[in-house]
Design brief:
388 residues; Arc Repressor Mutant, subunit A; 42% helix
């Protein structure tokens, strides 16, 4: 398991632009005919300046370029952002710096330039290794491009990961077993394996409502999840989080910062952050989502913040449980109390710990609280039982 300092700051940088919108995606992504790279580069650096002033002296352990499609960024912009973060905060010499990328041939041609810019970990949105599935998911690459991009990433980056989406309509257990086995043979220490979820407001939501697509039922989805865990374990990948699998020392440092409830700064349109300062305590932060609104705000006042909301102890406790119980390691209860000011017993429904423990869903040894494999498989129900 990757180690992160408890005082580390993670920095998320959001690039909101895509060439097209995938039908399952409800992220803050936008299609634009043209982008002024120099203007956006200046704005991202200005917002870094602002948040660094709010959190002086912090140590940055990870940077994550997400989107949108960050591999559409000019490599010069990526380099400028990394350099600015290093200037304004203390950047760990071994910091994990990840950039999300699509496997299209055009974007893969930029991989070497991103490595030169300072990126040391690539996260590839492969999503499927079957051309029919890729077309259904609205992806712009085919399976051969995905394989070529993975080969190129292996040659250029010290570390890389990739995503697959499963529990697709009409996907059989045998088909998923074969696809995942192939994927694990190509992996290099880390994979993210997500069940397809239909989000309101997406084209897939409309198609499901109209009866055009029918995702697997709960029982079949659970079978696919069991297959996923079994095949990954056989290949040496542990499920350190519900949807993330890694070999030893390959867990994502940035993802762990989120799930361990450490502070993170959000830079760019629609980015979220969670920061604590001596002056303001813990706050949940949200940037303007529309790219043009964010850009104009940064140029006017130095940041694009739309909301900075104080986090009450009970809200912090619920968030920490929701995130930490996704992790195989669970939650350190000393850190839980340090962060929230509450004991576990004060934060949850009376008797819930005993009931969930007796049901084989939670494990509690006095120092750590974790969901069992059975509990993580029904985490939403488990959490609703925990909270009063």
């Amino acid at each position: 398991m990757a180690e992160t300092r408890k005082d580390s700051l993670a920095v998320y940088v959001h690039w909101p632009f895509c060439l097209s919108k995938c039908p399952y995606c409800d992220f803050n992504s936008h299609v634009r005919d043209s982008i002024d790279d120099a203007r956006w580069r200046r704005a991202l650096c200005l917002e870094i300046d602002y948040w660094a002033e709010q959190t002086p002296g912090r140590h940055v352990g990870s940077i994550f370029f997400g989107g949108g499609t960050p591999s559409l960024m000019a490599p010069e912009t990526v380099a400028a952002v990394i350099e600015r973060i290093g200037m304004k905060w203390s950047l760990d010499a071994a910091a994990e710096i990840t950039l999300e990328a699509n496997p299209t041939s055009a974007e893969a041609a930029r991989f070497a330039a991103f490595r030169e810019a300072g990126v040391n970990r690539l996260s590839l949105g492969v999503q499927a290794l079957d051309d029919t599935a890729l077309k259904f998911l609205g992806r712009q690459h085919d399976a051969n491009e995905a394989r070529a991009a993975l080969d190129l990433a292996r040659r250029i980056f010290p570390r890389f990961s990739f995503d697959l989406i499963y529990a697709r309509p009409e996907q059989s257990a045998a088909a998923w077993r074969q696809e995942l086995s192939t994927a694990l043979d190509m992996a290099a220490g880390h994979v993210s394996l997500y069940q397809l979820t239909i989000e309101k407001g997406t084209p897939f939501y409309t198609r499901q409502r109209d009866g055009e697509i029918n995702p697997p039922g709960e029982a079949h989805a659970a079978d696919l999840f069991d297959i996923t865990n079994a095949l990954a374990a056989t290949a040496g990948y542990s499920a350190y989080e519900i949807s993330n699998y890694a070999k030893p020392a390959h867990a994502s440092r940035h993802n762990l910062a989120y799930w361990r409830y450490q502070d993170y700064a959000g830079i760019g349109p629609g980015a979220h952050g969670r920061l604590r300062t001596a002056e303001n305590g813990a706050r949940a932060l949200r940037q303007h989502a529309k790219p043009e609104t964010w850009l104009e705000a940064v140029e006017r006042v130095g940041h694009g913040s739309a909301e900075a909301r104080p986090l009450e102890p009970t809200e912090q406790a619920e968030e920490m449980l929701m995130m930490g119980l996704r992790l195989h390691e669970g939650i350190n209860l000393v850190f839980f109390t340090e962060r929230t000011g509450l004991t576990l017993e004060q934060a949850i429904r009376p008797g819930a710990l005993t009931r969930l423990g007796d049901g084989g869903l939670l494990s509690h040894d006095g120092q750590n609280l974790r969901a069992t494999d059975k509990g993580r498989n029904v985490l939403n129900s488990l959490l609703s039982e925990l909270f009063a």
